[in-house]
Fold:
Amino acid sequence: MAQGTEAAGRPSGGLQGTLDPAEVQDLVFADGRRLDLDGLFNLRDLGGYPAAGGRGVRWRTLLRSDALHRLDGAGGAILAGLGLRTVLDLRTQAETETAPSAIDGIPARRTHISILTGDLQALPLELDAIYRYMIDECSGTIADAIKVLAAPDAFPALVHCSAGKDRTGIVVALILAVLGVPDEVIAADYGLSVSYLDSERTPAIAQLQASTGLGEGLTRPLLSSPPELILQVLARVRAAHGSVEGYLREHGLSSADLDQLRSALLI
Structure:
């Protein structure tokens, strides 16, 4: 079986079940994981995670973040210094107009793909319902976003939405699954967001209320990132499509695209 593919709902060659909770915590809180820049609350690097076949995810190659509209000049210079080639914005058009990204000094390709499609007004403001909706109804735009990162010259890349938690979290989780990162590590990485978007962090909440347009509708439950939720996402994808790779191939990615992701992101 090809390296990094999934069988029986689990990535081949991955480390599921072999990492104890302390090891997982050491991985997600590794030095260099979070990049603390003024104006950003949830910027972090996905490097250092173990993957299929004894490989690992490259540092400073794929970053995830909240919205970039409050990034200051010093922070922009730091991001520019990372040599970013792609900045992928997953927000809706309304969000990008309300809070345009402050990245004029970053010479990266900017791509905007709104993950959310359809009648969003009818969508319940409950995380599990939103995630089911994205996986079932927004599969095409999710695949389109990941395809941007499968381009040969896409990396280093930064992926973001407004909070850097939900749309970004799903896209990142699917990419990490393709790489064969253990599910428990994917879930723990997803769960990090709650540390940085805690509702006690008033500036972060005010920023998100404004940039998403949700205002007071952005409640504490919507700011949570329970690890079991992203595990449910992976299970839902695998139950319906056999594997994460199968889900992505059915919605427009080729095996060559997925191989390119592994080639670019794994050492």
Observations:
- The first helix runs from residue 21 to 28.
- The two ends are 20 Å apart (CA to CA).
